[in-house]
Write a structure and sequence with these properties.
- The complex is a heterodimer.
- Chain A is of the alpha+beta class.
- Chain A is built from four helices and nine strands.
- Helices cover 21% and strands 31% of the residues of chain A.
- Chain A has a four-stranded antiparallel β-sheet with strand order 1-9-3-6, with no helix packed on it. A four-stranded antiparallel β-sheet of chain A has the order 2-7-4-5, with no helix packed on it.
- The two termini of chain A are 12 Å apart.
- By secondary structure, chain B is an alpha+beta fold.
- In chain B, helix 1 runs antiparallel to helix 2.
- Classes of the chains: A alpha+beta, B alpha+beta.
- At the A-B interface, helix 1, helix 2, strand 3, helix 3 and strand 5 of A face helix 1, helix 2, strand 1, strand 3 and strand 4 of B.
- Strand 8 of chain A pairs parallel with strand 5 of chain B.
Chain lengths: 219, 226
Amino acid sequence: MRAQLEALADEAARDPSRAAVIARHIADLIRSEEARGDRSLPYGYIYQGAYQWLAQVDELEPEPLPTPETPKAAPIDSTQNEGVEIRIPFDCLIMGVAGWAQPITRLAQFNNDIRINAAVGVGFHDGRGLFTCDWELDGRTSFTTTGNRQLMVPAAVTVGTRLRPRPLAWTLRRNQVISVRFRNLMNVWIGRIENNPDEYTPPNIAAAVAFYALNLEAP
Amino acid sequence: MSVSPPSLANVRALAERMGSHPADAVAHAARLQELVRALPPERADLISRVGFERASLWTLPASFPNLAIPAGQLIESEGPPQIIRCQHDVWIRGVVACAIPTIQSGEIEELIGILAILGTTSINYGSNWRWTFETNWRVDARQGFIGTGSGEILAPAALITGDGFYVAPVDWRLQKDQYIEVRVRPTTARVVPVDPDSQEDRPEPWIVVAFWAEEITQPSARYDHT
């Protein structure tokens, strides 16, 4: 009904000569809606984040850090990776956000990877120390900012976990787009190895950020 | 600060008036359009659910990526403070922090050993590797938020910040252009003493202290039904 009301109101504003007729139609629509009575959802439903929308990456490579050899590399608090988009399918209330990541073991580096991957990120819930992330809405500025510039910081201080999502109260409209950016931090954890006959390099990670949402449109 | 949205009853009342007074309808057409567009989303009563109405959307971080102990120095010193400027009126809801280390090692076996030991240290003494630094903050250069009662101090991050899984709650309303000044001092030398003979600077972890904030002028919960 919301969309109908908006279309009618827009038409009345566009063609004021028909405003009175359209206004009567709007009033009829609202009266019939009010006559239908309370359509509250059953107790308990509204407290469940039924929808879980994820931005995820499966094989995210580490990006070079700025060095004298790679001066144009993205600083640690930014990325050259494109964002992963989530298109909002209906008017919703996003209640929370959580993140997760896991390093990927390579067959060629199995003996090193299996042990390093188990040790890296210990002390961070759900691997949130292995990547930075941020998100923006409809191409506008990121929600992670110092006030003077936007930057990406570790997921550990940006998102919660599935057990304890970071609470949000974010109303979004149908067709808005959230864009989530990721950066692999494994090459930050694993610094210089002086004696490296295996030519070990930091592994890729799988990572995801999930938004938990309630449908605000009539069921 | 609450914003009272129009209701369907408001829209109906205006529409009925326009319908019964066609001469007024033209003048009110734009107002009707405004009211309809400002209607809350359907099921907006859900927004008033206690527990997530006051939820934060903005992450305001102070980032310290380039800390190091200079060669020849045995203890860490405080790095230059970082400033967070409030772009809007905000309600700061919580503080979280983390540190991302860079492990330099002689070989892979040493790397694995260091990661395992220091990771266990994090489990025991501060998740998110918050055992690696102390911190404090000031608002508009006012001191005293982190102190002894008679003086300001830098306190262990594990004690005054959360880790995202748990958030250290605060309850500040700050206005646009107020600023938060964050200071940190690495403390890794408590666990890994500095080599006095080293000729190289020792890099410290990338430290981030972040404040989770709700925007007040356009609240995250767009409609206040209280």
